[in-house]
Amino acid sequence: MALSVYNSHDKFTYDEEFGFAWDVFTISFKYDQILSPDLFSGLSISYSDISNSSFQPSGVDGFVLGNGMNNYKIKEDLHISRFPSQHINIGFEGNAYFPDSETLVPFDHTATTIPYEGQKDRGVEAAVYLNDAVELTSRLTASIGLRYNYYMQVGPAQVNEYTDGLPTSAAEILSVTAYKSGEKVIAYQGFDPRVALTFMLDISSSIKMSYNKIHQYIHLVSNTTSAMPIDFWQVSNTYFQPLSSDNFSVGYYKNFRMNAFETSVEAYYRNMDNIIEYKDFPDLFLNNHLETELVGGKGRGYGLELFVKKKSGKFNGWLSYTFSRTFVKVDHYSRQIEINQGQWFPSKFDQPHNFSLVGNLNFNKTNQFSFNFTYATGRPLTAPDANYALNGTIVPNFSNRNEYRMPDYIRLDVSYTIQRGLLRTARYKDSFTFSVYNLLARRNAYSIYFKRERGTNYGAYKLAILGTLLPSITYNFNF
Amino acid sequence: MKIYIYIFYFFFGLSLAACVEPYNFKSEARESFLVVDGRITQLEKYNTLRLTRSTPYGQAADLIPVDNGLVKIYKNDEEGIECKKLGDGFYQLATLGEVGNSYFIEITIGDKI
Fold first, then answer.
1. For the complex shown, is ipTM > 0.90?
2. Total domains, chain B
3. Nearest to A14 among B19, B23, B25 (CB)
4. How far is CA A54 from the centre of its chain?
């Protein structure tokens, strides 16, 4: 039996211009039981409340814009080990997604912002699954499973109906249907099969292949071009169908020198349907008809991962390099809505090169030096790449979606740990860790945004959450 | 005491690290594009079209008029009529707008239509 609680609050403010805050609260309860010698039960119940807000602290238009998500989850897993060479898992899972209302309130008593509160869509999901991990031969094992999931959007909700054959826009709303609390609005269901095969070539090498399908009923809406990149969640509804993905992977794994070195190379391909992209210049906040701002599309991704790990010795660590691409296509009957002329374009998560090097150098039993180096290609960016004059006004012309990239992300962290700090007893152990996060003091871009000061052209600005290196001291005490 | 002064300067220095700074964005827009701004009305005074060119990001967003264009206006399926150049990128549309008709514009610059 285990109970865990986690609570955190983060806040970032830039001068008097803007800021954002994140709050996370999670509580989970886990109860494991041995029902019989070959039947094991694991029950888990959890609740999480994630809320974020962006705010403008100064001026008469100072505001706090808040949203969040409450997630209730229950899962029961039965593990059956009655049959030789087989491990069967069967269970059910329930999820409820109850977002907080989106709220806008004045920052303080001097602000004249008009308060707003908008109800967000709610959804519940139930799933049953069966998985069998079976040893087919001495060299070949397989894990085969099937999951059935059922999702329902529930009220309170208001569903807009639009003119047939025209793109959804606020001007084309014909009628609104209201649903009471708990009432079914729309339902979706799906089967998610999965197969994973492992073939041992010899004692130190193997080939693994897998396929799985996933249905996801909650979408992350993220406007990364904003200077205040606040994300929020949108559950599937009448207009946002469930995201589904087919995932294929194949990998070769090889250990060397009595498992002192682990190496692997893995390739994957992913195909996605009903991913959400935003239209040009979307109005994502304080908007109770998001279907006029977002549009569904297709996605695909592929990549190759190389991994080397040295597990033991005075110097140990791991190195990984991933080449990966992710593309999106929004092909719409209305040219006004399709993105980049309906062609494939890099998604906002597309970072082709990703490199990590982690090392630990043990000088002796009590002194250890560690470092962590990370490199990643900058995320895609949509930018105003030209200007033109229209009726005496300078108008920026935006590039194709995600045509440019932010600067590459590079970070080096180091730490030095001294065991046996203050207490020198056999019973209690303690340690001091001196570390420096972002030793290179690199101002990695969190977002690039464009603004025009009065009487000038548009200028580009880089927002870095951490403007310099960050030293810290940690004291650990084990008893 | 000296150590406290060092610590104070160290953290004071950290606090000066700006989080927003100008970014040298380089546009890859290879060539400027043609901007067509016009309207067709029943009033001759406003019945004009203006051709200008865009400027890449980072350059002054000045108005660059295009006076070497050949502009033709077509009414329904009739022959196209060439529009008179007024200078500074303006062209006088050769026909007034009438409700119930459709019009389209053909612009030729050099050998490009």
1. no
2. 1
3. B19
4. 19
